[in-house]
Design goal:
Blueprint (H helix, E strand, L loop, with lengths): L1 H14 L10 E7 L4 H14 L15 E6 L10 H10 L21 H7 L3 E9 L3 H4 L11 H10 L4 E5 L14 H10 L2 E5 L1 H7 L5 E5 L22 H12 L7 E7 L1 H7 L3 H24 L4 E6 L3 E2 L3 E2 L19 H4 L3 H13 L2 E2 L5 E2 L3 E7 L7 E4 L2 H10 L4
């Protein structure tokens, strides 16, 4: 399958620019939260190492025919947070750090392209490997002055009317207040608004054919909010690719008006905040697998599909090389078998993970975000619009242009 996908991508390279009059009917927007150029490069070199190559082995999306880069500053900071950058990617407008879907002057609600496309007849899917009321996915359906208003965000999820949600469970408010209801009440609202809750792929398959809206979660007993890191996941766990596959299955209608799916790889950012090198690499590779699921759909609908892969910001100041020396030693990462988070209070294991990164000659400059530009990869109908330099606010505008929908 990988070889077939690469051949298709090669054919798309030759065809790029030949579809100027066509419109995208099926649109995928993948957001690798925290994924900068170095994250992509490191994952490519890791794949090459695992395959016995001296050099990189491209990811599904890094082989796309169109490459651009986007600036990510917010209305208030040169270094954005995920709320402001998610808002930019969803609404085409800058806002202040910590704000979701709210204008920079706090004067009003901004409208996500998900609503614009929904009004135009597109079915909508929102998925993420982290909680669905977290900053990035929330930006596509909610408007709140502060990203920590998790209960309010969850209620807006229920009221969105979008057809498919999938991924992590809902987060409770960080600081419980007397007037804030528990998140269980938000789940009740989601049910009342006509959503079937499906825990795991088996339950999804049982319910998907009998409902108009669905929220797909991990299996009962495993949902603690975010998906576990790939490095920690038990065999058979739901994957990001599973989410995308289920979303396609639920949203696609043979004679329908099309769909828009935003799918976030949120654990890239979470691992990078912890300077957790191997966990970060495996999360980027998981995103590549999820994009493969979209590419399989693209193979069946090449003249109607657009896939865009980007990031909301860079996290960690990742560098391929540290101190003196011209080598990256991936062999130093081979024995790492869990994430920093899973190591928890095991200081010996945590130190070993950190020291393995040092011995591998991989560097991190911060435990937070940076202001670096991020990559934009695209393939399919309208992909030419995503070439070259742009701002993150340009991406939703160009998606609407590709879809023939007024922004």
């Amino acid at each position: 399958m990988k070889k077939k996908l690469l051949l298709l991508i090669a054919a798309a390279c030759m065809a790029t620019g030949m579809r100027a009059q066509e419109q995208a009917k099926y649109i995928f927007l993948f957001i690798g939260d925290g994924m900068g150029f170095s994250h992509v490069s490191l994952a490519e070199y890791y794949r090459g190492y695992a395959a016995g190559l001296h050099g990189p082995l491209p990811l599904s999306f890094s082989a796309f025919p169109v490459l651009g880069m986007a600036s990510t500053f917010s209305a208030t900071n040169l270094i954005t947070d995920s709320a402001a950058s998610g808002t930019a990617l969803a609404t085409g407008e800058k806002t202040y750090n910590h704000s979701i879907g709210t204008a920079a002057d706090s004067a009003g609600r901004l409208t996500s392209i998900a609503y614009k496309l929904h009004d135009a007849g597109f079915r909508i899917g929102i998925s993420s490997t982290v909680p669905l009321n977290h900053a990035t996915p929330a930006a596509f359906y909610a408007s709140v002055p502060d990203r920590n208003c998790y209960y309010d965000i969850a209620v807006q999820l229920a009221l969105s009317g979008f057809e498919f949600f999938g991924g992590g469970g809902l987060m409770e408010n960080d600081t419980p207040e007397e007037n804030i209801k528990p998140i269980s009440e938000a789940y009740n609202t989601i049910r009342k608004e006509g959503y079937a809750l499906a825990c795991g792929m088996e339950e999804y398959r049982e319910k998907a054919g009998n409902c108009d809206r669905i929220y797909l979660l991990q299996e009962k007993g495993t949902d603690s909010g975010a998906f576990p890191y790939v490095i920690d996941s038990p065999e058979g766990s739901m994957t990001h690719a599973d989410l995308v596959g289920a979303g396609i299955d639920f949203l696609y209608e043979e004679n329908g008006s099309g769909f828009f799916m935003m799918s976030e790889a949120g654990n890239i950012d979470w691992a990078a905040h912890k300077k957790d090198t191997k966990a970060t690499v495996l999360e980027v590779l998981s995103l590549s697998d999820a994009v493969d699921a979209a590419l399989e759909f693209y193979m069946e609908h090449p003249d109607e599909t657009l896939i865009v892969v980007t990031a909301d910001h860079e996290t960690g100041g990742l560098s391929l090389g540290r101190d003196k020396g011209y080598n990256i030693r991936f062999s130093e990462l081979e024995d790492i078998c869990c994430s920093v988070e899973m190591a928890g209070e095991d200081s010996e294991m945590s130190e070993e993970i950190e020291e393995a990164t040092c011995r591998a000659h991989i560097g991190w400059t911060t435990r937070d975000h940076t202001g670096g530009n991020v990559p934009v990869f695209a393939i399919g109908v309208g992909s030419r619009l995503f070439s070259g330099r742009m701002d993150d606010t340009d991406i939703p505008k160009r998606i609407c242009e590709a879809a023939g929908v007024e922004f």
